[in-house]
Amino acid sequence: MQALGQPTCASELRALAWTTLLVPMCAVYARSACRRLRPGWPRLAALLLTLPVFIYLPCLFNSYHLRLFSTFFHTWLAANKLVLLAFDLGPLKPSLPLLPFVLCAGLPIKLREGPQPTSHSASPGPPVADFLVPCGRSALFLTGLALLFPHTGSLPLYVVHYLYCAQIFLTLDLVFSSVGLVAAAVLGSAMERQFRAPLVVASVNDFWGRQWNLLAVDLLRASAYKPVRDRWGRDAGVLAAFLMSGVLHELLYWYMTLEPPTGEMLLFFTLQAAFHVAERWARVAGLWRPPKAAAYLVGTTFMVVTISELFFGPFIRAGIDVRMIQEAAEAVELVRAVAKRLIVRLFGAGSS
Fold first, then answer.
1. What is the phi/psi pair of residue 191, to 5°?
2. Which of 1, 13, 77, 291 has the greatest CB tally within 10 Å of its CB?
3. What's the per-residue H, E or C state across 238-307?
4. What is the pLDDT of residues 74-119, one digit of tens each?
5. Which residues cross the membrane (predicted)?
């Protein structure tokens, strides 16, 4: 099996520098092109010139975490946003000021829609409060998980995989909340939260529609669900959205392992689509209305089992889980060492 090179501080900083340079350049070009071209195929042809950049960016990283985030931020979200922009759809608008456009194009953020404060109203501070608690909570629990994972050898498999689910959620929530915090402070605008509480869910519909990765849900709804639903109906639209998500996760598997996709990601999301549709049919027919506690137990168990058997399998066989846990532990140790050095320096300076 092919493997990524060993990440070093120099290699990852170099990749971050290239990303910091190329993403804004592509966003500025996209905004300029869209302000000159009408929505449709000419605008799409102009924007397609940026897609090779977003497809290549994850390959710059050797860190599994940074490669994962680049795949999601750039190859998935940014490319999808630009394709939708070509047809005047999605969260990006050419009328946005330059800085909000660049940040919304390259980062997993979405400006909160609603009335803006007028010049006569009191000027509020930066709307960052929504992200402070999630950042602190996720950082705290991730530290606990990093300390717990070396001692999980005796736990049942599904319990360990549930902890994997928790680590994925907390990592994404920490990164997305941190990005939202900085963007809200820079732009002075409120941002949408991207996660609710996906570790305990009442149904498949609840998980995918209202709890998990809401920016990706919005983009899939605009790019796959609505066009197919308008032509072939609601159930076909649901299947199209899940199939598109499956293809994107197969691409993620290739980025993370450098191995040909196995098809298990596509199978996982096809199964989720089938249960999504079946669950809605059962609710409409009055066949599935369990008590709330039973709904949470069944919904959470279904998600953990299917994720464990189909979603985690390819990554675990490739050893990605071990490498990512190692990277997380190294990150915790780095933060601890830096914090200890700062404390010693501050208290040392104070005592002297």
1. -115, 150
2. 77
3. HHHHHHHHHHHHHHHHHHHHCCCCCCHHHHHHHHHHHHHHHHHHHHHCCCCCCCHHHHHHHHHHHHHHHH
4. 999 999 999 999 999 999 999 999 999 999 999 998 887 765 444 4
5. 15-32, 44-64, 161-187, 236-256, 293-316
